[in-house]
């Protein structure tokens, strides 16, 4: 095993900033670029861990905010940590809770040490700041811990974005300073570049974080409603000032096309609720874009969701059957679509890695741009699953 | 393979009417006594077919009424039948639709040829009688087809029960007469003993059905709100007039204790929504009775639902985790509890067969009566899952 935190770059794409790498965590290696299924409340919605392994998931994401509220991080710590609690022995990344504090909770009041807010569940008064977030993530025992930050809204003024980013930078420093005390050994700490859509602020944020010498760097504050071209500009303005040799993570992104385009801009890790959220909406990812399984054309269709797909749903069930399940609101319909959609995403990541390794990433990117129709075209994702 | 419809009795219990047998269907053998998980709308709620196989299910039940409404039996026929549609290659029994017509639908009008009613989903005017039920079940292609009948309400007068039972008997005759035309070869046809709680009517019903020479006999009209002692008396009054050499099926029953007691009275087949319904309610079956996983005592409990249980939920997850999932309404919680509860029922059936074969059924029955506390004590089961 490599030293925990080692990030090896195995291959770089000559035509873009894409690269293939391996990140060593305390719970195993993650091949990058990779996608993390979202397990907000210690469960990837409707998909049991044995299915996740079969799907090919290597790393999952848990949400600090949700787990802090229920069941509480001390309980999870007492039960041996999040891996044992949710029966996932592979790597786990936890977000910092900041994003949900700002997007979900009511009556926020920001102070220098953190944020007063009320639980979106029962209105309980709570406080979360860098110390609390590190304590909670230490309790959870995730492999990758995110610094506590504010995700500024879109649109916002330069002044708001600057103030918010600089406060987040101070919070990041605080997280780094207390990690020795509050995190367990082997937990990696990633910074989060903020700064809205202002390139100068993104640069200041990235440089400030890099000065802290963190294990990896995420790009936050995007996919919050901005046009897709702005998302890519925000990515570029951030990545430009991040070190080659550390992993980069685009938070909460995105559609398959956005992922390919982000990989081309040097991103190594992704998470997104789209695969499971669209499943609950009766939609499936295919090579040609998102299709609605509820469509009347599927009524009597014996074909699988996608011909040639190797997932359990496609190997064993027809579109007609899955459409029926969705129409009558049977849980198995959501289970099967979630399995397929996650499989689609993880196969996409494996195809991306293969293309980069084989020197065909540029062709892959162009082909995907032609065949995959992004009907959703949405950079905006609602905050809760 | 034995001839389809063959029912071999391998062992009979000397101390009761319990027996171990094998029923040959077109899709394989069913070891009896056995329990059929309920797949109302072509899915055993939240449990995928590969899990059902792992759980040890041999035969599942589908609902004619629900499948007739959505997606329609012609569609299922055109897609190769219910087995292929739901990807279950083992035996399937379908009920006749009668029970749901009388319990779910509105504005019923009974005629000699069947029942006019309105769909409980959209109010559509529909008609179901013996011909329609046989046609639909022929389309579904189930291995065991049930005759169309009326399940009389509880309580009801002798006169109502007599009229209803005699009409059901005429309907049963009609089902037998049209089976050659409307069912596929290899589909077995079971009669349903009715007659309320009146022993004389039960006898008349059973004798009338036996005269028709059907492949098996169900006991209907029980578990509809009567006291548990009346349920057993109704079973006894029916079984007494059924042939030893044909399989007997107690419809919609029951709790684990009821199943053991019914086996002792000569019953071979069971179906019940309790395992999956209680799962959705956060409850689990254990050797000591039903327990609520939501209970505060499970908050930090690392133990599985039941120590020693071999199901996926118990092998891999703690009570604390499953309690958390149920508390936050995560689908995986219902999936895991459904898996456990069905496993509990199927293991119970296997223990029952083993006990009968080993000559220890009486001991097993007494032990179970002592250790298993039936907190539910309910003969009444609501009609819909």
Keywords:
18% strand, disordered C terminus, globular, alpha/beta, 385 residues
Mean pLDDT of chain A: 95
CATH fold name of the largest domain in chain A: TIM Barrel
Largest sheet of chain A: 8 strands, parallel
Oligomer: homodimer
CATH class annotation of the largest domain in chain A:
Alpha Beta
**Rg of chain A (CA only):** 20 Å
Tally of helical segments of chain A: 15
Quick structural summary:
The structure is a homodimer of 385-residue chains. Helix content of chain A is 42%, strand content 18%.
What report would you give on this structure?
Two copies of one chain form a homodimer. Chain A has 385 residues and is of the alpha/beta class. Chain A has two domains: 7-32 and 63-272, TIM Barrel; 279-365, no CATH class. Chain A has helices at residues 49-55, 64-69, 73-78, 82-86, 98-103, 130-140, 158-182, 199-211, 228-239, 256-264, 274-280, 312-316, 319-327, 331-358, 361-371; strands spanning 7-12, 19-25, 28-32, 34-36, 60-62, 92-94, 106-111, 114-118, 125-128, 144-146, 188-193, 216-219, 248-250, 269-271, 283-286, 289-292. The A-B interface holds A 41-43, 45-50, 66, 70-71, 75, 78-80, 85-87, 299-300, 302, 312, 316-318, 320-321, 324-325, 327-328, 330-336 and B 41-43, 45-50, 66, 70-71, 75, 78-80, 85-87, 299-300, 302, 312, 316-318, 320-321, 323-325, 327-328, 330-336.
């Amino acid at each position: 095993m490599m030293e925990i935190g080692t990030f090896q770059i195995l291959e770089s794409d000559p035509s873009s900033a894409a690269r293939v790498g391996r990140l060593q965590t305390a719970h195993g290696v993650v091949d990058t670029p990779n996608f993390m299924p979202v397990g907000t409340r210690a469960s990837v919605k409707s998909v049991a861990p044995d299915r996740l392994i079969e799907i090919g998931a290597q790393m999952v994401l848990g949400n600090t905010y949700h787990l802090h509220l229920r069941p509480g991080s001390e309980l999870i710590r007492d039960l041996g940590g999040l891996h044992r609690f949710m029966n996932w022995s592979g790597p786990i990344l936890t977000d910092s809770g900041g994003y949900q504090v700002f997007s979900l909770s009511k009556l926020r009041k920001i102070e220098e040490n953190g944020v007063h807010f009320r639980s979106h569940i029962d209105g309980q008064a709570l406080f979360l700041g860098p110390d609390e977030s590190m304590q909670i993530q230490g309790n959870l025992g995730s492999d990758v811990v995110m610094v506590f930050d504010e995700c500024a809204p879109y649109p916002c003024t330069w002044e708001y974005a600057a103030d918010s980013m600089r406060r987040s930078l101070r919070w990041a420093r605080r997280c780094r300073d207390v990690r020795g005390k509050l995190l367990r050994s082997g937990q990696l700490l990633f910074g989060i570049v903020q700064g809205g859509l202002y390139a100068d602020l993104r640069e200041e944020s990235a440089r400030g974080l890099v000065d802290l010498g963190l294990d990896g760097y995420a790009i936050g504050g995007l996919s919050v409603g901005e046009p897709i071209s702005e998302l890519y500009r925000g990515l570029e303005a951030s990545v430009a000032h991040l070190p080659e040799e550390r992993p980069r993570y685009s938070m909460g992104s995105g559609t398959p096309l956005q992922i390919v385009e982000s990989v081309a801009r040097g991103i190594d890790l992704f998470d997104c609720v789209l695969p499971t959220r669209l499943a609950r909406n009766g939609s499936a990812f295919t090579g040609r874009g998102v299709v609605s399984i509820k469509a009347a054309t599927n009524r009597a269709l014996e074909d699988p969701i996608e011909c040639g797909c190797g997932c359990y749903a496609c190997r064993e069930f027809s579109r007609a059957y899955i459409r029926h399940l969705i129409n009558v609101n049977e849980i198995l319909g959501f289970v099967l679509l979630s399995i397929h959609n996650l499989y689609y995403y993880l196969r996409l990541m494996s195809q991306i890695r293969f293309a980069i390794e084989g020197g065909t990433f540029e062709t892959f990117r162009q082909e995907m741009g032609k065949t995959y129709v992004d009907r959703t075209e949405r950079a905006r994702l609602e905050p809760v699953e």
